[in-house]
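Case study 2.
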Amino acid sequence: MDDPGIKKQNWDVKETELFLEILKELDMKKCLDGRKVRNNKLFKVAHRRMVAAGYHRSVDQLKFRWKLLKSAYYKGKRETPSTAPTKIQGWWRYEKTMVAIMESRHPLVGTGGGGGVNSDRNDEATEDSDGDASMLPWPQPCADHTAQNLDLIIKMDPDMDSQLKMGFIGAGNMAYGIAKGILSGNVLPLNVKVSAPSSRNFARFQELGIAVTHSNVEVVCSSDIIFVAVKPHLVPPVLNEISQHVTDRHIVVSVAAGVTLATLEELLPENAVAIRLMPNLPCLVQEGALLFARGTHAKPEDGALLRSLLHRCGLVEEGPEAWIDIHTGLSGSGVAFVYLFAEALAEGAVKMGMPSALAHSIASQTVLGAGRLLRDSGKHPAQLRSEVCTPGGTTIYGLHALEQGGVRAAAMSAVEAATERARELGRKSSGCKK
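Prediction:
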């Protein structure tokens, strides 16, 4: 019997369309008959892509959804369209794509706009919808079945993640937060190794089952993906040390603030794959905000692989390198700005007579709740702020005091100052030579 929790799920129209598009694309690239999408491995890959697009369904939920869609397809085949009952409300939106999947005997190449889920529609209605769901675009399939596209599917496969070997040079908070997120996915602790000159931070990695060493070269030689998680001024000597051991199989990911891709590529061997990543401290609790930029020789599938590995650390986005320093000011340093504001909230409550411990507990919950509502509602901060205010009420008086104190301008200036400092560090690092 199916788990009731699996059955009780509300699917947005766009979510179902994306799900079918993913199944169709996987079917196409694997050159399999449509009925074989029951294959468990394909569902795992589909699950990873759905998560990357912002839809957090379990593999079992995806299987159950496919079961309903397939049932509706067979009922439509047996009965006339006017009498065919189906459990899928708005079945007509998905019927053409289901036919394309189920009745394909060859790779679905060059389908163009005909009959796929991307055909022109003006549907805003949702099926048992919880509300509008956002959908990130997924790269369109190439008609020539290049090895590069097949590589992308392989690298997005969770089973492949478990076989990857990862190394961290540096054992600080960023390395620890990323390692925790990666291990909560499909990567095994025995496939991860950490190096640092001091043993001070090794214990917490060892508690996760991760091997530790003082040799950076040992980490490089035993890894496929290398996270360089050291202070910016230490990046040149570290890369000079390991450069001769970096090969074509490696992906080097730097999390050092301000160190540019140009600097990384200058310090690494020719054609080395480099990616610049900026995480933030909440990666420690898998609520981070991470932005990465690919270097000259990093392919789209390298970015897809990194995203698939890091998605449990929090929000993971890719962008141009020019955004990395801005992200450093906004989110890397921004968490400290939020902590300062939370501290000030609590101190205000203490001033008015509340016990300190209780004030700090309530302040932290207030920041957490406000952040989750802002993220999950999709509303602009100004709209949520206005929803709290009532004419002549307490909130508008408090906001007036904040505006008099220049809190808005101060926050903007803080992001600007942190961004400029990141750029300054980048300019300094660009002068480093092998």
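The chain is about 50% helix and 10% strand.
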